[in-house]
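call fold(seq) -> tokens
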Amino acid sequence: MRLVFAGTPTAAVPTLRRLAAEQDIAAVVTRPDAPLGRKRVLTPSPVAQAAEELGLPIIKAARLDDEATAAITVLGADLGVIVAYGGLVREPLLSAPAHGWINLHFSLLPQWRGAAPVQRALIAGDTELGASVFQLVPALDAGDVFATRVIEVTAEATADAALDALAVGGAELTAEVVSSIADGSASALPQEGAPTLAPKLALEDGLLDWSEPLERVFARFRGVTPEPGAHTTVDGIRVKVLAASPSTQEQLEPGEIVATKTALLIGTATRPLAVSRVQPAGKGAMSAVDWWRGQRAVEGLRAGA
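ret:
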């Protein structure tokens, strides 16, 4: 089957590689090179880099406008496959391939429609994560679903690690759906149940509320790590929490900080969170315990204050 593939981040690469091994990829559509790092060096997207390694034609487009639509339509693809491209597919491009477009989405639809499904699911404390492949339609993540799959993610995985696991499992799921469309056995069913939404995260979504129970604090930490980043304030200074895990120690007052040899225990409404690595504003990442030693001259410091 002749495909056009659209994707941008690392999470889309496993699907591209899997499909390139099994199908005819007419072209890969990805967003333009972006400035990265402290020196702001223009860098191709992870999908662009993978496509170049695979020797596939690349179309770089910030959005799927008339020019991009014309370039894709002339390819005569049977099917479009999109994985986290970062832009909307509208008519007439939506109907250009003979079988339209399918989308790999990292949630069990209709749960968590939107830009940040994995992050929002973790913040909500969902115990099951998964992927869905659905027919792309104009409405947000609302098309009929070809297949879904629950994908195992470790209980303490942060959003980046969870997305890595979902990307690998989702690649397999997408390849199976593409094969079924190619042989005519595919069938898609309408989504059932009330949808939940997963809008893009903002900086304020990373603020940890120490008055909540440990389970909720840790769930938020997982969901916002590494981006936009979990954070708190200590003595009015914003401190990013880079590494943390639930503690079995006795309860502390919410926001109370107690140092051990390996971590800072910060109190919640129940058990403390053990924070092992932090990044204070204007400084580099460091051991949480080393950072705390430099703060102890000030009595009564608490997280969230």
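Residues 2 and 24 are 5 Å apart (CA to CA).
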